[in-house]
Design goal:
The protein is 85% helix and 0% strand. It has 212 residues and is mainly α. Helix 4 runs antiparallel to helix 5 and helix 4 runs parallel beside helix 6. The radius of gyration is 19 Å and the shape is globular.
Length: 212
């Protein structure tokens, strides 16, 4: 019995380590995505690197799920653990999808507004990384609330840039409907990633309300 309890306590620290690894890897993927935007047409190697990071995040998610099944005592509610790691994985999936779409569609360049959106995504993920680091110990409730506000503000900024970018896309490419379709898909993928960052912030805010 004591062995099971001690193993559970050790597992608590493993959860936080996995959260931090996933958040940091996802941020690295977002940085590569922004770098891809400035590297056309030679982007294939960087897209491959994003794919490697996505696989790494998948592995971290699977390790978290396995740990959840094996751990007697968890540092957060099981639904909170599942929701947090799943939503972070959704962000990395969107980053990977955006990078691959840029390559598969054989684009020659990326609009400035789309680059700006990916910059917003990077800034949101930087806040996510900090927020995840502050969860253990339940000592930083006020700072986490502030990070929640900042991520929410970035999500609003992303919406504004997305709206402006779509208007510009249609206005400047009326004679290129296929290009509009391709770029619109990438815009929507990046928007989803930013929205998921806000969802992560909401999950962390709920953790604050529950545990702090």
């Amino acid at each position: 019995m004591w062995r099971k309890i001690l193993g559970g306590i050790a597992g608590q620290f493993e959860f936080y380590e996995l959260f931090n690894r996933h958040a940091a890897t996802t941020l690295e993927g977002a940085k590569y995505l922004l770098d891809i935007c400035n590297s056309f047409p030679n982007i294939s190697l960087k897209v491959s690197r994003v794919e490697e990071l996505e696989h790494e995040c998948d592995s971290i998610t699977h390790m978290t799920m396995d740990l959840l099944h094996r751990t007697f005592i968890t540092p957060l509610d099981r639904d909170e653990i599942l929701g947090l790691i799943s939503k972070m994985d959704d962000v990395m999936d969107s980053i990977d999808r955006a990078a691959k779409t840029m390559l598969f569609f054989d684009l020659k360049s990326i609009p400035d507004k789309l680059k700006e959106m990916i910059g917003v995504l990077n800034r949101a993920l930087e806040q996510v990384v900090v927020a995840v680091q502050l969860i253990p110990g339940f000592k930083h409730g006020e700072k986490l609330r502030e990070l929640h506000k900042q991520i929410h503000s970035l999500e609003n900024e992303g919406d504004q840039v997305h709206h402006a970018g779509i208007i510009e896309l249609f206005r400047e490419n009326q004679d290129k409907p296929l290009l509009v379709i391709k770029l619109k898909e990438i815009y929507e993928t990046v928007e989803q990633a930013i929205d998921d960052c806000e969802d992560i912030a909401d999950i962390i805010e709920n953790i604050v309300l529950e545990h702090f």
